[in-house]
């Protein structure tokens, strides 16, 4: 089973990286960008019987830092799976 | 009384030797070097140091993988028994990732790696790590980090301040840390995490911008408290 995990900074946590990229986009002349926030996407190939609980624990203990980040788990069906 | 200190080495640690040298210079005792993959600590350690560096190449988040290494389970258990633990730079990141200290260390607000000697204000001069300093004194200690921007929510910050757990504060802007926090103590005061490198300030150097002995006083505090106790 392919699993895609999106790790994002919690709302309200300042993202200096996103701010710098936002500034660059404006400098390049792209108007109308209100905000930029940068996260991390993790793709995993896991056994089909991996439980949601196990995936959550992986995120809470290692893949995300719950002090500053939130995560979302997306299970991909085979058609949508990355090559 | 003998002073038995252990210095942990993770893959990518690069200040472990300096930490051992600083401990040995002040205590006169050989520091024990410990590999991250070991499941157990040597018996009877008086003190544990987590050094600076780039454990696991800072992959995923600084300190995240080191915090889950076998030896860290033993370090957490030792800290729970009251064994003092010092984490410097990457060691501080490992301490927050392992839950021994609250908060997180994020990318510097200015996005750049900061490498210079900075003034620190001693905010708590009564802990076992800081008793050789004077309250409110300004000391100079080098920093060298990309992820030193201390973050915690307002309630946690208020708790840290209210309980005297902010050990050091930057006396000038360095990395965007909340409330200029450079180092914090655990609730029982026996775990200290700090971004500045005291082990790099244990001897004067030829050039005035280098060296200094303010860091040495931190080791004198620790060893003085533990050996006289």
Radius of gyration of chain A: 16 Å
Remind me, CATH topology of chain B? Answer: Rossmann fold
Computed Rg of chain B: 16 Å
> Mind telling me the CATH superfamily name of chain A?
Phosphoribosylformylglycinamidine synthase subunit PurS
Number of helices of chain B: 5
Q: In what range is the share of β-strand residues of chain B?
A: 25-35%
**End-to-end separation of chain A:** 13 Å
- Uncertain runs of chain A: none
- The CATH class assignment of chain A is Alpha Beta
Beta-strand fraction estimate of chain A: 25-35%
Largest interface pair:
A-B, 11 and 20 residues
> Which blocks of ≥5 consecutive residues of chain B have pLDDT under 50?
none
Provide a descriptive summary of the structure in words.
- The complex is a heterodimer of chains A (83) and B (229).
- With 83 residues, chain A is α+β, with helices and mostly antiparallel strands.
- Chain A contains 2 helices and 3 strands.
- Chain A has helices spanning 16-27, 52-63, and strands at 2-9, 40-45, 69-76.
- Chain A is elongated and about 50 Å long.
- Chain B has one domain (5-228): Class I glutamine amidotransferase (GATase) domain (Rossmann fold).
- Chain B is built from 5 helices and 13 strands.
- Chain B has helices at 16-27, 70-80, 90-97, 154-162, 214-228; strands at residues 5-9, 32-35, 47-50, 85-88, 104-106, 114-122, 138-145, 149-151, 166-170, 181-185, 191-194, 203-204, 211-212.
- In chain B, a hairpin with a 6-residue loop joins β12 and β13.
- The relative contact order of chain B is 0.17.
- The interface between A and B is medium-sized, with 11 and 20 residues.
